[in-house]
Structure prediction request, 247 residues.
Amino acid sequence: MRLQGQVAFVTGGSRGIGEAIVRRLASEGAFVYATYHRSTQQAQALQEELNREGYRVVFLSADVAQETDVERCFATIQKEAQRLDILVNNAGITADRLIARMTLEDWDRVLATNLRSAFLCIRAATRLMIPQRYGRIINIGSVVGIMGNAGQANYAASKAGLIGLTRAVAKELASRNILVNCVAPGYVETAMTAQLSEQQRKALQGAIPLGRVATPEEIAAVVAFLASPDASYITGQTIIADGGLSL
Prediction:
């Protein structure tokens, strides 16, 4: 229960890595607010399940690429909880195309959801964290933002941008005891990887020195560490959790 009494906000928390992060932070004692967008049934079911188990979890409907939605979420947190200790910018999408065929809409939509949303949430979070002189901000990047990947110029740019954003904001907020870090997963067992054929899965696993993809829970464990007192001297860093893929 390293996070007992703390308040967390997780974007894109209704499925995949986001769901695992919500579960892990709640299990460590945090009161977790999380967003969902379009996945209403999953969010409601997850909130009801975790509330029955005694965890404090509230889901808020929001498109975190939109300033008005972000401001509404933080107004709710300020009114109900009066504080915010942990922000996890997890919301993300893909729209893969080779660069010659990538549309401006493909580019803008991915950059808005993956990068602009993090800026909006960090800006809003600082209004709560700076006065209390405490905070943990964790951005969920990707190893693709370090390595690049054909057909994912927009996604790679957005995740590389998160790394730069992490480093800049970490320098700005260090004097206020607000730590800012990034987690860069490799391939993770999600609905997307579950659709791969057996041949594709073997090829993917063959490229990873550990010989397997990560579970969402393994990424959530890194997030929980960075949110905890155990990571009190770590800021501005990108923690790569990719099974050795980027070696």
Q: What stands out?
A: The beta strands are 7-10, 31-36, 57-61, 86-89, 135-140, 178-185, 238-241. The longest strand covers residues 178-185. Residues 123 and 240 are 25 Å apart (CA to CA).
